[in-house]
Amino acid sequence: MNVLTIVSGKGGVGKTTLASSLAVLLAKEKKIIVVDCDVDAPNLGLSLGLKDNNFCWQDIQTSERAQLIEERCIGCGRCVDVCNFSAITFDNKRKIPVFNKFLCEGCGACQIICPANAIALKKVKNGRIGVATSPYGVKVVSGQLKMGESGSGKIVTLIKNKAIEIGEKEGSEVMIVDAAAGIGCPVIASITGSDFVVAITEPTKPALNDLKRVVSVVNHFGIKFGIVINKHGLNDPMSRKIANFANRQGAEILGRVPYEDDFVKATVNLIPAAKYNKKFEAIFHNILENIKVAMGI
Prior knowledge:
Blueprint: E1 2-8, H1 15-26, E2 32-36, H2 44-47, E3 56-60, E4 63-68, H3 78-82, E5 88-91, E6 96-99, H4 109-113, E7 119-124, E8 127-133, E9 139-145, H5 152-170, E10 174-181, H6 185-191, E11 196-201, H7 205-220, E12 225-232, H8 236-249, E13 252-258, H9 261-268, H10 273-276, H11 278-295
């Protein structure tokens, strides 16, 4: 499978809009599977007409949490001193450490330093993975991090592996990955193993600044990429700055999506923009053709 990943340094610049529109157009030509790797705020399924109960969900365990084995504890307090997340306090009355499950990152430092072997790392159900087929015939794999839990990067890796497993079984030719915004662990996990990355941005200074940050991550992995400018026409001088940045990076401007109210209406109605307006379909089809040329597919 060829893996196409869509990223954005800044949130709210149209990443999921682009992913859903490319998915419904490419599905007319090739067998595809799409993956929502924004596990903190997954919305790709919604954009493709799916509700929560359309997915077949399963709980997953990708993180651990420290737990005290009280009968072994000697009350030395070393675990309190070593915890960088302030997840452990000391109960002076009971002479034992107390673990805050909401602050514990499961790093294991406390377990290593404990001289009495009184701390265990227990697996926790920190998320879930779901699979569904959208009304457009597109197979969607999505994941969600449970509230208050950590390990979003690990969940993304599991989601991608699940999608690869399904895709290979069903003979999918292309996997489209909708990454989270930013440059954190979920984004790095999304980018890893990609054949091509599309970075979408908007013509504003914060968006350009964040675009540069996410491009630095893509460059770190040596992956070829192109750029899409959303809300084109909103700020022409800034659009030119983005084009100049792309040129310096040796990257192609794959397309420019205009700033129009109908994009908002498409989002409100949970319809891919390419399906909501014929004019939009032509715009996204042009972007898709440029991506196909860049990927050689």
